[in-house]
Structures are given as C-alpha cells and as structure tokens.
C-alpha cells in the first residue's frame, strides 16, 4: 500500500473497534495493511493502543464516580 501512514492505521483500528466493539488484533492489522513497512504498522498500533487505554481508563473512572441510580 502506498501513502499509508500511522494515522491511516490508527483510524482503521478505531473505526473497527467502534463498529464491532472489539479491538482488532495485530494479525488483523498486518493482514489489512500488508505491504506497509513494519515501523509504520507499529506506530499506528501504538497510537491506537495509547488512545484506547486512555479512553478506557476515563470511562472506568466516570462509571466509578456515578452514584447508584444516577443518570449521566
């Protein structure tokens, strides 16, 4: 694939996660972006994982702050 950078990979992973509810595996990313250099693949995967972990932590903290029966 030509002209693919880490943000294309990040975006595809985010879209896949939001659509399916499952984080794509590294194997799925490699298959989808076959021909992309390893460094770019790693950068895209790392960017997504950092954002995903941050968002997941935020969601868990928000849920912990809610009182029973409270609607946020």
Report on the architecture of this protein.
This protein is mainly alpha-helical and 72 residues long. The chain has helices at 6-20, 26-32, 38-65. The chain is elongated and about 50 Å long. The mean pLDDT is 86.
Question: Notable features of this structure?
Answer:
0% strand, single chain, 69% helix, mainly alpha, Arc Repressor Mutant, subunit A
* Sheet with the most strands, sense and barrel status: none
Please provide the count of β strands.
Answer: 0
Number of helices: 3
Termini separation comes to: 43 Å
In CATH, the topology is named: Arc Repressor Mutant, subunit A
- Given as residue ranges, the uncertain stretches (5+ residues, pLDDT < 50) are none
Q: Kindly state the mean pLDDT as a whole number? A: 86
Helices and strands in order:
Layout: H1 6-20, H2 26-32, H3 38-65
Helix pairs in contact: 1-3
Quick overview:
By secondary structure, the protein is mainly alpha-helical. It has helices spanning 6-20, 26-32, 38-65. It is 69% helix and 0% strand.
């Amino acid at each position: 694939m030509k002209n693919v950078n880490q943000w294309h990979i990040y975006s595809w992973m985010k879209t896949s996660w939001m659509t399916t509810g499952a984080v794509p595996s590294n194997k799925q990313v490699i298959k989808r972006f076959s021909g992309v250099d390893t460094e770019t693949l790693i950068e895209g995967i790392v960017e997504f994982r950092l954002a995903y972990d941050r968002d997941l932590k935020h969601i868990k903290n928000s849920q912990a702050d809610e009182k029973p029966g409270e609607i946020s």
